[in-house]
Structures are given as C-alpha cells and as structure tokens.
Amino acid sequence: MNQSTFTILLGGELHLTERLKASVKDSRFIAADGGMRHAAALGIIPELWVGDFDSTPPDLRDAFPDVPKQPYPAAKAATDGEIAVLEAIRRGAKRLILAGALGGERSDHALALLLYGVSLAEQGFDVLLTSGYEEGVPLLPGAIELDLPKGSLFSVPGFSELKGLFIHDARYPLADFHLPFGSSRTISNVAEGPVRFSLASGRAIILARPYDLSGV
C-alpha cells in the first residue's frame, strides 16, 4: 500500500475502467457520504467515511457497518468531498485521486471540484480527478506529460489567462500561445500519443477522455 496516496470516493459517476483500477491500486481510501457506493465495485473497504450522510441510503450504511464514521451536520462550511480531502491530508496524503469528481447531476459540485483540484495542485499536491472514462489533471506553470492513447480527445479550459502555453504531440499543437480567459481555442484536441504540456503563467485543467477514440 502507498501510504501517501489517497483515493477520495465522491458521489459522481464512476466507471470501473482499466485506467481507473491502475490509478487507485495500492492507495488508501476515504469515502465522502454517498461516494461509499463505489467501494463495493472497487472491492475495497475505506479506512474512513465522512459526511452529513444526507445522500446515504440505509442499505449502504448496513453494507459497511465496521467502517469508522465521522459525521458532520448538514449545515456546514465545506462539502463532504472537501472534508474527506482535508482528512486525507491530515493523514499524510501527497497524491490525491478524486474518484467520482466528474459528471453527475450536480454541475455546481463538479465545477467546485475542478477548481478545488487546481487549488490543491497549487499547494503542491499531485492531483487526479476521474470518472473512469474522463480524467482531469491541473495544469500550472511548468511542464507535465499525460500518457494518452493515440486518437483520444482532450481539452484545456483555462481558469485564468494563460501565457506561454505549449502543447506537443497533438493534432493541434500550440507553441508559446497566449490564451485569453474564456477562450474556447483549447477545447477538443486529439492526442497523437503521450501529450506534453508546458505553461509559463496561469492556471488550467486538462480534461482527457482516454476511451473516446473518435478523433482517430
């Protein structure tokens, strides 16, 4: 087990793909409220279950009677997911996998998690947001490489103005590009294999669909 890698089980969609299974292998797990429903599919038992439990049906509680619970009132100043992340950090997390962070019925929760993921990366944490089919990786000043299959789709929405953006090994490469805040220029690109990104200033997130090969 990797003692510093934590998977936070959230309430959004989660699909048991090979990439998801590889990502969470040997990690520690904390469930946030109804995100516990993903535990059975993953074949794991979290070390902690936090939340106000307003989205937890009785049968789910009964299925995991021995998992330690950390209840919070519904009227609280943070989401169950953020509380779970803070508990993981308190327990020594360096890498955070937010499983179930993308998709679902609540766009407000999904957007908040995307922004939170970027904030965590700015604090020095290694962050992955995933639904199994879709993955999100914060992009900050510096360089990263994502191992994406050839033909898979990805986008780079900016959360600020981006300067000095480079995208290599993609159908639509960019070099020292200036992306105004709110521009759609970096939406819907296609990987030619592992894609390299670098950024001089700004903050963004890479949203990739490794199983969507419609760009082939």
Automatic annotation (TrEMBL):
Range of residues in the leader sequence: none
Enzyme class: transferase
CDD domains: TPK
Listed GO MF terms: ATP binding; kinase activity; thiamine binding; thiamine diphosphokinase activity
InterPro entries on file: Thi_PPkinase (IPR006282), Thiamin_PyroPKinase_B1-bd (IPR007373), TPK (IPR053149), TPK_catalytic (IPR007371), TPK_catalytic_sf (IPR036759)
Domain named Thiamin pyrophosphokinase thiamin-binding: residues: 142-205
A Pfam family hit: TPK_catalytic
A Gene Ontology BP annotation from the UniProt entry: thiamine diphosphate biosynthetic process
Protein name: Thiamine diphosphokinase
